[in-house]
Amino acid sequence: MRLRHIEVFQAIRQTGSISGAAQLLHVTQPAVSKILQHAEAQLGFPLFLRVRGKLQITPEALALEREVDKVSDSVEGVRRLAASLRRQPGMSLRIGATPALALSLFPPVISLWSERHPQSECELSSYHSRELVQQLLMREIDVALTLRHPEHPGLNAQALAHGVLVALAPKGYWAEESQGVPLSVEALAGAPLIGLSSSDPLAAQVGSYLKNLEPAPRIGIRVQTYSLARAMVESGAGLALIDPFTALGSKHTLVRPLNPPLPITLYALTRVNESHPHTLDDLLQLFGQRAREQIAKVPALQSS
Q1: The domain at 3-84 falls in which architecture?
Q2: DSSP states of 136-191
Q3: For 163-264, which CATH class?
Q4: pTM for this predicted structure
Q5: Mean pLDDT of residues grouped by 10 in the chain (304 residues)?
């Protein structure tokens, strides 16, 4: 199938008719019919059958769907990349962050940055760390905030702030006076722990930190975001080891640093060999300043 065949095939799937596909593609109905007939002639089987006046996809076409979707996604990716390359630098910034960082850093920092640069625009998005790397490489975002160093030759990683993971427990699990008191890693032996998804950038680090505990922590629930881990702790489902940014927004919980500490770093990722507008430099300074302020506000970290 040629790209034009695929384009018509997808348009008919979406609209359910020749006329709808023609309208979607901004061409005439005879043009769509001709392209469809040519595609079917090359394939050697029909893609659609007319049933009670409506087009119904054939079993053979259904078998093609997955591969056709891959091609369509790739073409759409090329179009997005081309649109990104046409963008005028400095006019707008597209900023991505992991969910926890987006919730804690975006609102105060972007508000202040917008006041300083009223002529600039920004687009905010939230993805997991692996997705952020792909978004950067595809030029769909300009900067990403993450707790993971990607070790990718096409990306720069600038450290903005340093902190440690903290243990979060529902109130009543520990005595109130333990708030901010370092927690020995041995105290987590056999504890009910909200685990991190294996896709989380810090999952391996946490797993290594806990690997020698006997008995091992009881992990009955795994989550993909620290915000959800915090919510599970607040509901009484167990303990969690989370970042200080998420811990800052916790309610009805106790926060304690770990002993020995489990360090983390907030990184700003950008593409290598690419000049950046001064507005981005100012933005990263604001992110770093705000992150350090938030880390300092977590009671647990003041004792570590």
Answers
A1: Orthogonal Bundle (1.10)
A2: HHTTS-SEEEESS----TTEEEEEEEEEE-EEEEETTSS-GGGTT--EEGGGGTT-
A3: alpha beta
A4: 0.68
A5: 84 86 88 90 87 82 80 70 55 87 93 90 90 91 92 93 93 88 93 87 86 93 90 94 86 89 94 84 94 79 43
